[in-house]
Design brief:
Length: 487
């Protein structure tokens, strides 16, 4: 066989393989995927069949390995058993008509009940949050559970870490969880690991990325939760990572970027639900099921207490719990809907829910960032602005160089959601998240005042201004929007 004939044979084989991959992808890719996601994968495969199929095999499934999913099912049963009897609220006439069905939805999807007798304090800046968490750890008597997407031992967190170390020395059980990929990529990772080893505090990396795990699941699944629980009486959760507000990155320092977050300090029976989140993730990484400590149920002794429901979500659940909750609440809104999300890349269902709310007369406001820290997400998000503005959504851009990283929204004057979840497809499908739904006009009013402060630090985007942006920006926005659907 001559080199020429060999070349023709190889070319025919490549053409045959490309044809086979294109045909089989049409039959296989759309199965159990959103139409937009399936279309994005098909476009990638038709453009470059062999690389496209390789990428699909690596990143095409949001599911965890079977063993991890079985662990999630087991822990869901544990949560149901240990939270039975905690439904300390009864349906009241003051509830919005749709609220009861949303509570039932969350219980069915995430196993957590709605509980009454709670209080929630808003911590709207980094310093306040760090002081509150440090003080709470300093008072710990039995255990401290710490879980962060990004855990860094640096100049901004050293006092909190010292409080953990002191608690550990005096016999308090301290456990730490951190997302492996995100924490290891931070410039403070070496100092963090050295501190954990020196103190001897039990710790685990969540969703570790290595040669073995890459072969079993897509490597970009992340645990994005931020949770602290002390003695079962006090819990913290929200959007803030345990890291300096500039994330210790030289590029952020050059651009003067600093992150602004919002956390909650929770007290009351809902803290047991926050602790169940930690127990779930500790079990997933260690196979050690922590029997829930014999925590007494502490009802807050206030006349105006809050009803709260923890909503976990992530690849371990069959349904996209946070997306379903958000959609249900958006459709329930009758007067006003205020959304704060630094990364806003909704799927079609969420986009339709929000624009429909605006078109049926609900006042809808979206707070986003004037500057982006993630190029692809930033431009993908911008591609939705025209549709939102035309529907009547008011968009407020928090002024640079601050990155408004808080994640919360309010529905009318009745209900709020605060947590770690963005309104984007990554948070809906790929990241483990935790949110808390809170019913109580007092709390919603307090959160509305925080939103008023955001508004004072933002500029409102107009449709005229947006339509006048440069052509290159439009192209970048639309291209990045396509990549956001490849999941």
């Amino acid at each position: 066989m001559t080199w020429k004939s060999l070349g023709k044979t190889i070319a025919k084989i490549v053409v045959g393989i490309n044809f086979f991959l294109r045909v089989t992808s049409v039959m296989q890719v759309p199965r159990n995927r959103r139409p937009t996601t399936a279309l994005a994968w098909l476009l990638a495969i038709f453009a470059a069949p062999i690389p496209g199929v390789m990428a699909l095999n690596l990143f095409g499934s949001t599911l965890l390995p079977k063993g991890r999913r079985e662990k999630q099912a087991e822990i869901n049963g544990f949560i149901i058993d240990t939270t039975s009897g905690l439904d300390l609220v009864t349906k009241e006439e003051s509830w919005p008509r749709w609220f009861g069905s949303v509570v039932d939805l969350n219980r069915k999807l995430g196993a957590m009940p709605l509980v009454g007798g709670n209080d929630a304090h808003i911590l709207a800046d980094f310093g306040t949050t760090m002081r509150a968490m440090t003080d709470a750890v300093g008072k710990a008597e039995r255990y401290v559970h710490v879980e962060f997407y990004l855990f860094a031992y640096d100049k901004a967190t050293v006092e909190f870490c010292k409080a953990l170390e002191d608690a550990h020395k005096r016999g308090v059980t301290v456990r730490v969880l951190y997302d492996h990929w995100t924490t290891m990529r931070n410039p403070a990772s070496k100092d963090t690991l050295a501190w954990l080893e020196r103190t001897g505090i039990p710790n685990r990396a969540m969703l570790p990325v290595n040669a073995r795990t890459v072969l079993r699941r897509r490597p970009d699944l992340r645990n994005h939760r931020k949770v602290v629980v002390i003695d079962g009486t006090v819990g913290f959760m929200g959007s803030q990572n345990l890291v300096d507000p500039d994330y210790n990155k030289a590029s952020n320092k050059r651009r003067h970027l600093r992150w602004k977050d919002l956390m909650l300090k929770l007290e009351g029976p809902v803290v047991a639900g926050v602790n169940a989140i930690f127990i779930t993730d500790w079990f997933a990484e260690t196979e050690e099921l922590l029997q829930r400590e014999a925590d007494p149920i502490h009802n807050v002794a206030e006349p105006d207490t809050l009803d709260c429901q923890i909503v976990p979500s992530g690849p371990g659940f069959e349904g996209e719990n946070n997306l379903r909750l958000f959609n249900a609440l958006v459709y329930g809104a009758q007067e006003r809907l205020v959304i704060v999300s630094p990364y806003f890349v909704p799927d079609d269902s969420m986009l339709y829910a929000i624009t429909t709310a605006a078109q049926r007369g609900v006042e809808v406001q979206l707070f986003a960032c004037e500057i982006g820290d993630q190029f692809m997400v930033y431009h993908a998000q911008r591609s939705y602005y025209e549709t939102l503005l035309r529907a009547g959504v008011r968009i407020f851009l928090y002024r640079k160089p601050i990155v408004l990283h808080a994640k919360h929204f309010t529905v009318d004057s009745d209900v709020a959601v605060v947590g770690s979840s963005n309104m984007d497809m990554r948070s809906f499908s790929l990241d483990f998240e935790v949110s808390v739904m809170i019913r109580g006009r007092r709390f919603v009013s307090e959160l509305a005042r925080v939103q008023d402060d955001y508004r004072a630090q933002s500029r409102e985007l107009s449709l005229v201004e947006w339509l006048d942006r440069p052509l290159l920006s439009r192209i970048l926005d639309n291209v990045c929007r396509l990549t956001a659907a490849v999941q």
